[in-house]
Amino acid sequence: MGEPPRLTHEEFFKSLTTLLATATAKEKSTVYLTQKPLLHPSASTESNSENPPLLIRATNGDSKDQRKKGAKRDGRIKVSTVVMPDELQSFFEKYAEVAKGGMGSLKKRDRKARKKAKKRGKEGGGGKVGV
Question: Longest Cα pair distance anywhere in the chain, in angstroms?
C-alpha cells in the first residue's frame, strides 16, 4: 500500500477541517495529528540535517476499529503535507487555528463520577476500628 500524495498547505488545512468536523459529528471518533522530521537517506548536506523539513500528517482512527472487526480499511483517511523550515512559523499559526476550531465541540471529560467511585471504594473497603 503506497503513501497518498502530499497535499499543498491549503489543501491540507481544508482536508483537516473536514476530518475534524466529521470526527466531532460522530460519537466516538479519533483524529491523530503527527509531525516528524522528513529525513532522506541520501541527504548529506549539513544544512538539511540541522533543519530538515517536517512531515505533518492527520489520520482518523477508523483503521484500528475496522481491523478489530475484520472489515476492510475503506474508512481510513490519511492526509499529509511537507513544511519547509522557512515556512514553519506561518504554517503552525494556521495549523493551531484549524486544530482549535475543530476542537470546539469536544465533550469535556466527567472526572467527578470517577472521583466519587474512588472515594466510595476507599470508604467501603476498610472498616473503622473503634477505640
Answer: 77
Q: How confident is the model at residue 93 (pLDDT cuts 50, 70, 90)?
A: very high
Whether the pLDDT of residue 87 is over 50: the answer is: yes
Does residue 3 lie in a domain region?
A: no
- Residue 80 domain-assigned? yes
Range of the domain at 66: 9-124
Q: What is the pLDDT of residue 44?
A: 47
Q: Is residue 28 part of a domain?
A: yes
Residue 84: phi and psi, rounded to 5, are: -75, 155
What residues pair up with 80 in beta bridges, in sequence order? 57
